[in-house]
Amino acid sequence: MNYIKLIEKMKVNFDKIDWPRWPQYGQEEQDAVLRVIKSNQLFADKEVREFEESYSKYLGCKHALGIGNATEGLHLSLAALDIGIGDEVIVTPFSFISSASCVLMQNAVPVFCDIESESLGLCPNDIEKKISKRTKAIIVVHMFGYPARISEIMEVARKYNLYVVEDASHAHGASVDDIKIGTFGDISVFSMHQRKVLSVGDGGVVCTDRADLYEKIFKLRSFGHVELSYNYRMTEFAGALGKIQLSKLDEQNIIRRDNYVYLSEMLKDNRSLRVRSCRSNEYGVYYAIVIEVLNDYIDEIKVRVDYLKEVGVDIRETFVQPPLHKHLHFNPESDPARGAPWNHAEYDGVMQGGGYGKQLLNNAEKYCSPRILELYAHPPVNNKMIKKCADVINYVFNEDFYNGAFKL
Ligand SMILES: Cc1ncc(COP(=O)(O)O)c(C=O)c1O
């Protein structure tokens, strides 16, 4: 394949698509921010409490706590569960760094487990293989708003008496068998970072049904208590914006799902790609629509994706590269000040001495960038834009490019 010719060939002039930016804030959000400014109460108070009440009601859980971001929430969850030196926590290699680095924050040892090839979440069978007498908890990530195999994972957790923390950062409003994601585990954590489906700039929410965990997290969240605590509070601005965004969430998720359905339909005959779906008993919220590139000739994906971006489509090669077991946090080049709990004298488990980078986690390796693409179709992206976008995708991801039949 002549790379230069390929790029030239792509210079077919598609109209630029005016892809809407996310998030979409209007008058209501402006008024809310102004209200907070005028109140002169900017750190957590009434707005945050009201947001927490509406979120716990929405999720159907007993307690919700507003926090500064999901990374803090994951740390708080493990601290509340008393996970520390010598403990192992099973984590996924296919996620954002916080889903696993939170374990290091408690000086505990992450044990990476492979992902299941459809949901891209933890593989229940592999979890069972990774459990040892030191295992205390599993952190399950619902990637891109597609539910992980949570019912099967909960069965394994019950069998071995392990805690489950759901990292539902991407999955506000998703469900399995009509049960909301975030209510399966002992604790769940949602991100409200600007890019997420519930967006306030930076923010997060931790949810639980257990009163003891709620009380612990409540204390740890804010300085002023006798035991070691942090400043992981949500601001009033985030609380005020969170309430408004939550009231729009379901309606916006319907639009994301509609965009996903239409895109799948438009790309169904494309033999180079597969739009990833949820199972029929799952309600995915398609924070990102996951597109898998099927061909083995994957070295030219970047050119194609760059072209799509130029046309205006909000698409990218997945941020997961490398998978987390190869990340520097778990393979430090020199002795870090902290963060190498596998070297603690108290630890003699399977990860003793480290060696994360050498682990074989085949699915995580296979499905990271560039094979997996993320397409963002937040409202007000509509079917008309999806149609235009699908036309360009079908042009640049054309199997004939790969098999040499395409006339350059
Ligand atoms: C799966 C996952 N978990 C946790 C986080 C951390 O979220 P935050 O930016 O709110 O700390 C992210 C961030 O993108 C994420 O993608």
Would you write up a description of this structure?
- This protein has a domain at 27-244: Type I PLP-dependent aspartate aminotransferase-like (Major domain) (Aspartate Aminotransferase, domain 2, 3-Layer(aba) Sandwich), CATH 3.40.640.
- The protein contains 13 helices and 14 strands.
- It has helices at residues 3-9, 27-39, 46-59, 70-80, 98-105, 124-130, 150-160, 211-221, 236-266, 301-311, 362-366, 383-396, 399-403, and strands spanning 63-67, 88-91, 109-112, 135-141, 163-167, 175-176, 179-180, 187-191, 204-208, 273-275, 282-283, 289-293, 315-317, 372-375.
- A seven-stranded mixed β-sheet has the order 1-9-8-5-4-2-3, with helices on both faces. It has a four-stranded antiparallel β-sheet with strand order 10-12-14-13, covered by helices on one side. It has a three-stranded antiparallel β-sheet with strand order 7-6-11, with no helix packed on it.
- β4 (135-141), α7 and β5 (163-167) form a beta-alpha-beta unit.
- The longest helix has 31 residues, at 236-266.
- The model has no long low-confidence stretch (mean pLDDT 94).
- It binds pyridoxal-5'-phosphate (PLP).
- Pyridoxal-5'-phosphate binds at residues 69-71, 95-96, 98-99, 141, 167, 169-170, 191, 193, 204.
Could you tell me how far the N terminus lies from the C terminus, measured between alpha carbons in angstroms? 9 Å
N-to-C SSE string, H for helix and E for strand: HHHEHEHEHEHEEEEEHHEEEHEHEHH
Report the CATH topology name of the domain at 27-244.
Aspartate Aminotransferase, domain 2
Number of helices: 13
**Largest pleated sheet:** 7 strands, mixed
CATH architecture of the domain at 27-244: 3-Layer(aba) Sandwich
Strand order of the largest sheet: 1-9-8-5-4-2-3
- Whole-number average pLDDT? 94
- Beta-strand level of the residues, as a percent range? 5-15%
> Which compounds are bound in this model?
pyridoxal-5'-phosphate
The CATH superfamily of the domain at 27-244 appears as Type I PLP-dependent aspartate aminotransferase-like (Major domain)
Evaluate the radius of gyration.
22 Å
Q: Provide the CATH top-level class of the domain at 27-244.
A: Alpha Beta
